[in-house]
């Protein structure tokens, strides 16, 4: 099979499996919120954010380093050395940092429910951290659908456990422990898949470790700064607000996290095209790929906003339960942050394609400082609404900075035609939604979305030729 066909097949299967996995993940969220209720879900959200902070710190930028290293060699011996050493580094860093979490959490003014139940989540994040790094091997082999399949199996198993807990009645500890159990099973499946490509062993080549750490420190620093502005809102809110308020914020925030997995997956497919065009100095091709990606994100994110703004409270009620209707206004704000993340992702991937990551570090630092100051000043006064609006501010800042870094090296000359056409379609769709205000909000938003999509096609914002090229595996 040719490389082009491998990429196409890999992409189609990965997207299909990930789509099912996202759907199951949303159903799982609905079970968790209904099992726990707003207050206990607040404890769950705090534990999730706290442990995730340690897992992200343990990453050290090792996934991208491993992907770059294994992609640079065709030697099986060198590949084995690289994978096993970086795997061992990740194992050690995860053990050290995740083991520290139960002790560090005692320094925070959290409720006993957080401090005592946190330990049940550590196993899940430990195996998830190993999986996330080792998935770079599958990326090189065009076998990412296997990673997606292991994740889907994990979510399906967890769905079974949550269904049982929902019927029989479950506590916070059971919800957390159930996730850890399914993560262990998923890692075993992942490990079986991995054995086809590599014999995984511990490796203690400290000279090579030093080389890896020298290469990865800019990525590690970027990861830490991203962590500060991406997770600080939940952690600071959990200090100053009630567990119920944290839960009301955490549910729509999980929806944001689900929606923002797509731009990374999409841009992961576009990145090689960006990189190839940049290395060849083919600025026409670079601008063409950028413009198509920009237009796609414009149409997609405006569609998100139409649906959310017309039916946010109903969406939260359906997904999380009637106790979370109050999360609707929060979701209205976070969908703006979601839009900023989509375009921020577009430009940060351009930054990576142009090898300008180091130039972004100072901007990530500025964003982290702005975010921390804003969170600490505003959250004690305005609670979860402040957390949501500051998330918007920080994500917009990242978007602007990434655009600025790219702009200094290449003039992309963004064509705003699709923006105006999408705006016209959105205005008409919202007007139709207003006319249907006596109907159920979900029906109203569904009709508005259909109107929006039809008008995009009618106004020729949707390029039929571009779609044909996208679906043509030889293109």
Keywords:
mainly alpha, 2 domains, 17 helices
Fold and architecture overview:
The protein is mostly helical and 475 residues long. It has two domains: 1-204, no CATH class; 216-475, no CATH class. It is built from 17 helices and no strands. The protein has helices at residues 3-59, 62-71, 76-104, 112-117, 119-140, 144-168, 172-194, 206-240, 243-259, 261-279, 283-320, 328-353, 357-382, 384-407, 417-435, 441-458, 464-471. α1 runs antiparallel to α5 (119-140), α1 packs across α6 and α12 (328-353) runs parallel beside α14 (384-407). The protein is globular, with a radius of gyration of 22 Å. It starts with a helix and ends with a helix.
Low-confidence stretches: 470-475
Helix segment tally: 17
Counting helices, strands and paired strands, the structural category is: mainly alpha
Tell me how many strands there are. 0
SSE layout and pairing:
Layout: H1 3-59, H2 62-71, H3 76-104, H4 112-117, H5 119-140, H6 144-168, H7 172-194, H8 206-240, H9 243-259, H10 261-279, H11 283-320, H12 328-353, H13 357-382, H14 384-407, H15 417-435, H16 441-458, H17 464-471
Helix pairs in contact: 1-3, 1-5, 1-6, 1-8, 1-9, 2-3, 2-5, 3-5, 5-7, 6-7, 8-13, 8-14, 9-12, 9-14, 10-11, 10-12, 11-12, 11-15, 11-16, 12-14, 13-14, 15-16
